[in-house]
Amino acid sequence: MKTRAKSQILILLGLIVLAMGLFLGYLHWSPFLPKGQDASQAEAATQNKTFEGIRPVASTETLALFPEAKGRPILLAFGSEYCIDCQRLKPILEEALSPHKKIYAIHLDIRGDQQQYPQVFEAFKPSVVPLMVFIAPDGTVRNVITGVPAARKLESELQALEQHPGKGRA
């Protein structure tokens, strides 16, 4: 009797999880998207507006946070010493940055550097690490990447940051 009740509860839980998965998949179904837009386009449009949860900071505010950058492009790399992906990203990022001497790069630990750079953490409010914020010389947030990107993607972002003066994504 007890095993039958347990198996019925497990079946019920399985059906609930299945129903939730189907419902969440249904939300990405085309009737819920704007006309002429598929799910990947809708996601890209959302990311372009919000930069994956990072609000673009006004130019003067951004540049004032890094007077030592002196008109150079800026790469903010938020991470944590306890984050495995952050530790994987460090050597990749250092190697990718080596030919890009024009870019001012700063690594910020979300635990250790908040007191030293409170304005930066208040401005960008990093909620996930690793997180890289690419800022043009005019202070415009050009792009945001979370996670450990492929070396080619990172290189193309660094080249774009060096070559283009600003005004949002290229």
Would you mind describing this structure in some detail?
By secondary structure, the protein is α+β, with helices and mostly antiparallel strands. The protein is built from six helices and four strands. It has helices spanning 2-27, 39-50, 59-65, 84-97, 118-124, 151-163, and strands spanning 74-79, 104-109, 131-135, 141-146. Strands 2-1-3-4 form a four-stranded mixed sheet, with helices on one face. β3 (131-135) and β4 (141-146) form a beta hairpin. α4 (84-97) packs across α6. The protein is elongated, with a radius of gyration of 21 Å. The termini are far apart. Mean pLDDT is 77; it is low at 26-49.
Can you give keywords for this protein?
46% helix, 4 strands
Number of helices: 6
- What string, H for helix and E for strand, traces the elements in order? HHHEHEHEEH
Radius of gyration: 21 Å
Structural class, by secondary structure, is: alpha+beta
Helix content: 40-55%
- Outline type: elongated
Largest sheet: 4 strands, mixed
The CA-CA distance between the termini, in Å, is: 65 Å
Mean pLDDT: 77
Topology, please?
Elements: H1 2-27, H2 39-50, H3 59-65, E1 74-79, H4 84-97, E2 104-109, H5 118-124, E3 131-135, E4 141-146, H6 151-163
Parallel strand pairs: 1-2
Antiparallel strand pairs: 1-3, 3-4
Give a brief outline of the structure.
By secondary structure, the chain is of the alpha+beta class.
